[in-house]
Amino acid sequence: MTSQGRKARTDRFGARLRSRGASLSPQLKVVADYINENRRTVLGQSALEIAAETGTSDATVIRAVQALGFDGLKDLKGTLAGFLGGIVSSADKMTSTTEQLARDVDASIDFVRAGHMAGIEEVTRPENRRAIAAAIELMRAREGIGIFGIGASAILADYVARLLVRNGRHAYALNRTGIALGEQLLAMRRGDVLIMMGQASAHREGVAALEEARRLDVPMILLTGAASPAFGKQAQVVVKVPRGKSETVPLHGVVLACLEMIVFGLAAAEPERSLRSLERLHVLYEDIRRPPRGN
């Protein structure tokens, strides 16, 4: 469905939030704002899951929904689904984003700044700090590290694999799509650990990577911004990494920051390994810079 098709629909939820939002209590307003900013995510969430995301209770979630004039969560979801229509494409998300920014450079700067600041605040919460620490301990006990990510995350997978190799770890990216991923999966060995960047959808590449990990008894660390991630139940460790509002262009900077937290946390836990690797790397640099013999 195009953005034009979506605009033709009546945004009943938005209209009710504008007319009734000011009368909501602070807790109810937190829930209402979360629903507004994560409309598509909410379609797959229960009242308990929304409560967990907002730091409230399921009863508060229901009260907020009813305060906005809906019979209950099912009624609200039906309204949101009717307005959103089908899957939101990248073009729709860009349209939604640029409409909000109104071609204002300052607004664009503030949009990215606010998204990253809110994301860093979220990813450094106590529960995420514990998850990152658990991820590092799991990685320390494993031989190799595979980093799965496709789409924009494919670039991050390459970068993180390079950082890990520099710090003395056997690491490899799993970032191709289609059958080309099969060649990369041959690198996975029993005794490795898998870091997966994933969201709500169970794409075939993620399923294939996870099936190979299961076959080899390779544990998985999941980085996700989804409230109900596709591979959450299979993960030994889950780190929540927000990527912005579901209706706008996703921001990947916080994912990168989280990955760097994990990489440098691992290096700090294994300083001798990292030092030996970097010293060897500098020897190789000198060898490469040395002019060929006979010249």
Automatic annotation (TrEMBL):
Organism: Xanthobacter flavus
SIS domain location: 134-272
Positions of the HTH rpiR-type domain: 11-87
Keywords: DNA-binding
Taxonomic superkingdom: Bacteria
Coiled-coil stretches noted in the UniProt entry, renumbered to this chain: none
This protein's name: RpiR family transcriptional regulator
Pfam families for the chain: HTH_6 (PF01418), SIS (PF01380)
Keyword DNA-binding attributed: yes
GO molecular function: carbohydrate derivative binding; DNA binding; DNA-binding transcription factor activity
GO biological process, one term: carbohydrate derivative metabolic process
